[in-house]
Specification:
Blueprint: H1 2-20, E1 24-26, H2 30-54, H3 56-61, H4 66-82, E2 91-93, H5 98-117
Antiparallel strand pairs: 1-2
Helix pairs in contact: 1-2, 1-5, 2-4, 4-5
């Protein structure tokens, strides 16, 4: 049950980011969006710790502000994987950095709010 809640929460936060950020676009059906949310969960579980580990000096020097860049890189990875060149799931980004940067901030804030509201399964 916790996996379904997490998947739906991630999908909702990505959906809000697509609605609010002008560079992120989704042109697919709802089940493809759930696959994109699953890819986002996998990227957060696998790629984000690796990127965080290798960028640890930058994170320490910037007092944690570089984590915004790490989040944007993870979202850019998800956009690339779900774009037309790899899995063709419909999530695209017009710009390399700014759309994914603002999108990652929106995804983080909405995910945090949903984490406060939704049950955590404990």
């Amino acid at each position: 049950m916790r996996f379904i809640i997490t998947l739906l929460s991630t999908a909702a936060s990505l959906w809000v980011a697509v609605l609010l950020v002008s560079g992120l676009e989704f042109s697919g059906v709802w089940w493809q969006f759930l696959i994109v949310a699953a890819i986002m969960g996998l990227a957060n579980a696998i790629a984000r710790p690796i990127i965080t580990f290798f960028s640890l000096p930058f994170i320490l020097v910037t007092l944690g502000l570089f984590l915004f860049i790490v989040n944007a890189l993870v979202l850019q990875l998800v956009v690339w994987l779900s774009g037309p060149s790899v899995f063709d799931l419909g999530l695209t980004s017009t710009g390399f950095f700014w759309a994914t940067f603002w999108g990652s901030i929106v995804v983080s804030v909405v995910g945090w709010i949903l984490g406060l509201v939704l049950p955590d399964g404990d």
